[in-house]
Amino acid sequence: MILEIRGLTRFFQRLTAVNELSFAVKQGGIKALIGPNGAGKTTTFNMVTGLLAPSRGSVFFKGEELATLPPHVRARKGLSRTFQIVRPFAEMTVLENVMVGCDMRTGSGLFSAALRLPRCLRDERRVRHKAMEGLEFVGLAARANDPATSLPMGEQRVMEIARALASDPEIVLFDEPAAGLNEKETDQLAKNLLRIKERGITVLLVEHDMRLVMRVSDEVVVINYGSLIAEGTPSEIRNNPEVITAYLGKS
Amino acid sequence: MIRIVPYLLFALFIYLLPALLAGSYWIHVLVIIGTYVIAATGVDLVVGFAGQLSLCQAAFFALGAYASAILTTTYRVDPVFALLIGMLFTGLVAYGVGAPVLRLKGYYLAIATLGFGLIIQSCLVTLAQYTGGPDGFRDIVPLKIAGYTFKTDEQYYYPIWTVGMVILLLTRNIARSKIGRAMLALRGDDVAASAMGVDIARYKVQAFVLSAMYASLAGSLYAHSNRFISPQMADLSRSVEMIIMAVLGGIRTVFGVLIGTTIIKSIPEVLESFLDYQMVVTGAILIVLLLYMPQGLIGVVRAAIARLRLRGER
Q1: pTM, full prediction
Q2: Is residue B50 a contact partner of residue B204, using CB atoms and an 8 Å limit?
Q3: Which of B4, B172, B176, B177 to probe by mutation at the A interface, max A CB count within 10 Å?
Q4: Which residues of B touch A88 (CB under 8 A)?
Q5: Which CATH number is B135's domain given?
């Protein structure tokens, strides 16, 4: 188990957004976290990535409790992410955006940067090469030198995938990656997710698009009102009466 | 390698300039411009790259100036040694202030740094036994490097512009490294930067401390070359002026800082009655900048070139 969530709970004033949620993510697979609007998916996501502190419970990554570690430390430990609403770095090119993701893996500091010592130049070359490879992987190499914000939204999402993969993470969390994508783009996303899995990188997918979830996931967790209501393979979930009720309402 | 040529030509130009202007008052102006280029480069780093609106850069400038003045003139410390102590001291102060204050964002950060600047200014007025109080500090000993004493503007011109160009070069290198990328990323989106492994608190403080040390260095050089300093130099209006220097020419570019500083420091020399309207004019420049040319003069030129090229292609 690469990622384990144990008894995770979060209150917002008197509202319980996530309640005693526990599940685990197997190494090398694609796990989807789904649920109706307001089920607590994003709250869970933010607690795993470190943007939000849990009221109770804990997150374990490779057996180590993440507790109050800030997001950048989690990223360095191998936990990467994309964003629901794209967050490109403005005033930077597509390539530079991806390079920022690689940079945490190089050691040269202020001194060697200021004097452009061989150490820094070598890191620069390596990072540039690595970022370019990442852009080729997602098929965005042709836009490498364009300003990131000049890309259409769909391509900005693709860039975020390259950026998230740039640091060689062990797990990537995708926050509704299909939101706002057309059918063709969603198809490309599904292919990319499967290729990421092929590279041995674990994926945790928070998603609304059922067709995408059923197509790519190995396992699915369903939450509603902050609690887990079902867990299993896509076909098990599809036929689970409780899940159907949660999505369609009681009739 | 070809990229080095413009920089070498520029250095050559700088070193030959005094020969063209021999005896002219403009040497004096150029010494002032050189000093402020150093401070404005720091502003470009903290405001332009890291996106942290600091309104106390003039206070750091004053700290360096007073450190040098007091140490060399009152305590007879070697000027170069005093300058380095000033930079270290100002850097430490910036670290102490920056670590808690840089957690604030936008207007809150601006107000907090503004407050810090006011504190420094009133300290300089109050601690009159060391600083000379509101009347300022007079007769500062001249700069002395390895036994050579600098007296005239012609003599100050070379060390100040050499330091200035070295600072510009080092800063350009930092800006083009992962440090520059991290700062630009945190300016663009701190949540995403943090998720990509950028220690945003560290880079904010790093930019702030570096800019403070640059300002201190500039302040020390100013104190020696001008031989008189006063608490007025820590004023908020001076901090705003430094930001305009960094932004007017073109933010995040070496030549932008040079152009911006040259314009701002030349205006009072060209327009004699300018001193009466200084705040009005700098205020007007700031408004025009923010509204019509966020990329500065270089941005305007670049856009014009791009437009011409587009027309040529048609």
Answers
A1: 0.93
A2: yes
A3: B177
A4: 188-189, 192
A5: 1.10.3470
